[in-house]
Design goal:
With 135 residues, this protein is mostly helical. The chain is built from six helices and two strands.
Length: 135
């Protein structure tokens, strides 16, 4: 599994919102400036994350974004699944039912499943709050 810039930037954006949660709604341009990420790219990320109810939005002069929940309720695994689609280290593990023609005779499948479990368990046990506290 390789995490794209979309996944990395989504984490940075959500961490920025978590750090500034006491400041109300945060304009995207402020996050873009602090994180040195283009506002247009953040707009793409926001549309993905907002559609799943992870953000609250407010339009107008005092508009911007804020987390819909506490930072401790967002895991890195959830965020990366939203932005990356999957945490699977190989393609045949991306679907619920393995479609690989070699599934019954693959000698490496259990190893890949084990790696997938380690990745998911690790990322699902790190929250935004954990990352904030490790500064």
């Amino acid at each position: 599994m390789k995490v794209s810039t979309k996944g990395r930037y989504a984490l940075r954006m959500l961490l920025d919102l978590a750090e500034n949660k006491d400041n109300g709604f945060i304009p995207l341009k402020d996050i873009a400036e602090r994180q040195n990420i283009s506002k247009q790219y953040l707009e793409q990320i926001v549309s993905i994350i907002s559609s799943l109810g992870a953000l609250r939005t407010n339009r107008g002069k005092q508009g911007g974004y804020m987390l819909a929940k506490e930072p401790s309720e967002y895991t890195v695994g959830q965020i990366l699944r939203i932005t990356e689609g999957n945490l699977a280290p190989i393609a045949c593990l991306e679907d619920k039912v393995n479609q690989c023609e070699r599934v019954k005779k693959c000698k490496t499948l259990s190893m890949w499943k084990g790696l997938y479990k380690v990745i998911a368990d690790y990322l699902d046990n790190i929250t935004l709050q954990d990352l904030l506290e490790k500064k």
